[in-house]
Each structure stands twice: as structure tokens, then as C-alpha cells.
């Protein structure tokens, strides 16, 4: 018996050392990336960056790219958030152990691991080409197509998170609610969804954070635009595409603007994470 306890302690210490080492390595690389991004991007942050468009090249800014990213991320979120939450709720509460549920989860996992460039090509075939044919070329690449491509990337993240968060709600809560005689849909909406709200919102924000840095699908859908475009059916610039284009240019001034764009995306994702934690900490305190 003593030998078993000793072996478990040794295994526990080894696992603790390995996991701590892996965490330390990850934190070092994360800090390195943040430091390099700050060092190269901070000096390019100025008033011109937010007021000038990319058509002015090294004398311009990223205003049209910032606006385009916000529009396409909003379109993507409006599509994938409600569909993802509803699909995750269906999997957790109505198809938990059925073959249909297992099939949907399998397909969702495939979509989750699909390369983003493949999803961009898919949207190019089903939206960009048909719109071009229907309008005789007047509408082809568009911010709407970019938003749909981003929605396909964020959808499996929200479905998986919603499914897992609802499954974490204790079964006793379901039994207590059903014992009061309320229908299952009402229990799901008013009891389970409220209990899992923090996890579901976190999943939506994680999906939004992933969308903010995607480049490949936008090359086949929104394409890019050096001028300001706010109509969803126009070609639209975005921060990731502008960064990609500027880093391929030999002009060092454009590299500085690209670093500034990368810093903006990093700060946006960081702000989302901090805002989420702040809101949830206040909610927890109020409940206590």
C-alpha cells in the first residue's frame, strides 16, 4: 500500500513539473510576442492611423480597414451567435445521447478543425460567384460574403461551448425545475440558460477573438478595398488583410503600419477578455 502511495506521489510531482514547465514556456513565448508587437507597433500609433485610408499608402492609415473589420465581425456575430447558441442548446438538452446528437457533434468537430482558407473558398463558390453571375459582375466580392465566411469559423466554437456549458449545469437543477411542473422549454430558457450565461458569453467572445485575426477567408470573399466602404455589398478592407499586404511590401514605412494594425488587433482581443472578466466578477459579487 505504501508503495502505491509513493508511486502516486512521484507521478503527481512529475506531472506537476511537466505541466508547470509547459505553462512557463507558453508564457515566455506569449510575453515575447506581446513585447515585439508593442515595440514595433507602438511608435506607429498616431492620429493619422485612425483618420486616413490605406489608399495613401505610407502616408495613410488604417481607418477603412478598422471600419471594415468591425462591420464584417458584426455581420459574422449576428449570424453565428444565435445559430450557435440554439444548436448547442439542442445538443445539450434535446439530443444529448441520441445518434443525431452524436452526428451533429462529429460534423461540428470537423467544421471546427477545417482550415479557414477552405471555408473562404466554400463561401466564394456559394456566394461570391452566384452574386457575380446574378448582377453581371457589379457585385462579387463583398463585406457580406466576408462576414458569412467568418461566421462559419465562429459557429463551431459557439456550438461546442454552449453544449459543454449546459452539460455542466447540475442535473438536480433540472429535476427541481421539472418537479414544479414547468415545461422543458421554459426550464431551458429561464433556468439552464441563466445558469450557463457566463460560459456561453465567454464562448461568443472567444469566437469573436478568433474572427478578429482571420485573413485567408477574407482574401476570397471581401477581397480588400483601399477606400472607405460601409455598404455590405461592396468590397471591403480589413485589418488582417491590410497587415498581410503591408508585410509583403518592401517599403519599411508600411511595415510599421502593419505592426500598428497587429497591435490594434491584440489590444482588441485583450480588451474583450478583460471586459468579460470584469463583468462576470461584478455579477458574482452581486450574487454573493
Q: How would you concisely characterize the structure shown here?
A:
The protein has 12 helices and no strands. It has 288 residues and is an all-alpha fold.
Describe this structure in words.
Helix 4 crosses helix 6 and helix 7 packs antiparallel against helix 8. The mean pLDDT is 88. By secondary structure, this protein is mainly alpha-helical. Helix content is 77%, strand content 0%. It has helices at 2-41, 47-51, 63-93, 99-113, 116-134, 143-168, 171-179, 184-195, 197-212, 216-219, 239-247, 252-287. The longest helix is centred in the first third of the chain and has 40 residues, at 2-41.
**Percent helix:** over 70%
Distance between the termini: 43 Å
Helix segment tally: 12
Number of strands: 0
User: How do the SSEs run, as a string of H and E?
Assistant: HHHHHHHHHHHH
Amino acid at each position: 500500500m505504501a508503495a502505491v502511495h509513493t508511486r502516486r506521489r512521484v507521478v503527481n510531482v512529475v506531472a506537476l513539473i511537466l505541466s508547470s514547465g509547459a505553462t512557463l514556456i507558453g508564457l515566455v513565448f506569449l510575453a515575447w510576442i506581446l513585447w515585439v508587437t508593442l515595440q514595433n507597433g507602438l511608435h506607429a500609433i498616431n492620429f493619422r492611423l485612425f483618420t486616413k485610408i490605406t489608399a495613401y499608402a505610407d502616408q495613410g492609415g488604417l481607418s477603412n480597414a478598422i471600419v471594415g473589420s468591425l462591420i464584417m465581425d458584426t455581420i459574422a456575430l449576428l449570424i453565428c451567435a444565435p445559430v450557435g447558441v440554439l444548436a448547442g442548446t439542442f445538443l445539450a438538452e434535446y439530443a444529448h445521447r441520441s445518434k443525431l446528437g452524436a452526428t451533429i457533434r462529429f460534423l461540428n468537430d470537423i467544421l471546427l478543425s477545417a482550415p479557414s482558407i477552405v471555408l473562404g473558398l466554400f463561401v466564394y463558390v456559394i456566394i461570391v460567384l452566384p452574386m457575380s453571375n446574378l448582377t453581371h459582375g457589379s457585385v462579387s466580392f463583398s463585406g457580406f460574403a466576408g462576414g458569412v465566411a467568418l461566421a462559419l469559423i465562429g459557429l463551431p466554437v459557439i456550438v461546442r461551448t454552449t453544449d459543454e456549458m449546459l452539460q455542466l449545469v447540475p442535473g438536480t437543477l433540472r429535476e427541481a425545475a421539472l418537479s414544479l411542473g414547468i415545461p422543458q422549454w421554459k426550464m431551458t430558457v429561464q433556468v439552464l440558460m441563466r445558469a450557463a450565461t457566463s460560459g456561453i458569453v465567454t464562448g461568443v467572445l472567444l469566437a469573436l477573438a478568433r474572427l478578429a485575426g482571420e485573413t485567408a477567408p477574407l482574401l476570397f470573399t471581401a477581397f480588400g478595398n483601399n477606400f472607405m466602404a460601409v455598404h455590405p455589398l461592396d468590397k471591403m478592407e480589413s485589418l488582417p488583410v491590410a497587415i498581410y499586404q503591408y508585410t509583403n511590401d518592401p517599403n519599411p514605412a508600411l511595415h510599421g503600419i502593419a505592426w500598428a494594425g497587429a497591435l490594434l488587433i491584440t489590444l482588441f482581443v485583450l480588451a474583450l477578455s478583460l471586459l468579460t472578466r470584469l463583468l462576470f466578477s461584478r455579477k458574482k459579487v452581486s450574487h454573493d
